[in-house]
Design goal:
Elements: H1 8-37, H2 44-51, H3 55-61, H4 65-80, H5 94-109, H6 113-127, H7 134-140, H8 142-159, H9 169-188, H10 195-211
Helix pairs in contact: 1-2, 1-4, 4-7, 5-9, 5-10, 8-9, 9-10
Length: 225
């Protein structure tokens, strides 16, 4: 069925689809330029020219180069983390849930080591509250979302007796976030980030942390659910 240009609803839909296509073109062009030239050497003029838009149009979608980079990261992570900790999180060991999350993230970051390092620097600025803009705010919203969902999982596992109920679920989530992010930073700063090595180091750290919140048994620790 053809669209009726005289129908305001259909006209708006066409306009919105056009904006979405333009946004995708700008984002993917920025990704290509960042990878080819490096983040520091890349310019918004180069990205606008290659995307066949004016700089004014580019800035309407992302007012700064940092916002362009965060747009790429946010869109990618939104797809990657759609299921966050998995729909079966309550029935699986906590260590497996956290490691599956880390594996998806680290495999993603490993695809673009140089861009990933710059992205992490930009992310650090965002998390310190020193960056503004819609994409910065969008990225910053990931932390409370992830911590809130993980805290809910921890509370369920505490109720089932797999984790000590005296420990704050929110504190457990914050501990995971601190360990995960520091390990991710150290891993990305290596010359050639190796996913297997990064995951092995993270598992060791998380196992140590989880052992500290499990119920103590005279013979063994309870399963790390």
């Amino acid at each position: 069925m053809s669209e009726d240009p005289n129908n305001p609803k259909e006209t708006l839909s066409v306009r919105e689809r056009g904006k979405q296509r333009r946004r995708i073109r700008i984002k993917e062009t920025a990704r290509t330029v960042f990878l080819e030239l490096g983040y520091e050497a890349a310019t918004t003029r180069e990205i606008a020219d290659r995307a066949d838009v004016s700089q004014g149009t580019l800035f309407a979608y992302a007012p700064t180069k940092s916002e362009l980079l965060l747009m790429i990261i946010n869109d990618d992570l939104e797809v990657l983390r759609a299921d966050k900790f998995g729909s079966d999180a309550l029935t699986r060991p906590l260590i497996d849930i956290l490691m599956d999350f880390a594996k998806r993230d680290m495999e993603y970051w490993a695809q673009y080591p140089e861009m990933a390092r710059q992205a992490r620097r930009e992310v650090g600025v965002v998390l310190l509250g020193r960056a503004s803009g819609p994409e910065a705010a969008r990225y910053a919203a990931w932390k409370p979302t992830l911590l809130g969902e993980l805290a809910a999982i921890v509370r369920e596992k505490q109720g089932a007796g797999f984790l000590r109920s005296a420990v704050s679920a929110e504190l457990v989530s914050e501990l995971w976030w601190a360990i995960y992010n520091q390990n991710l930073h150290n891993w990305l700063m290596s010359d050639q980030p190796d996913v297997a090595k990064g995951l092995s180091q993270l598992r060791n750290l998380l196992q140590l942390a989880i052992a500290g919140i499990q119920p103590f048994s005279a013979t063994t620790l309870a399963p790390s659910h």
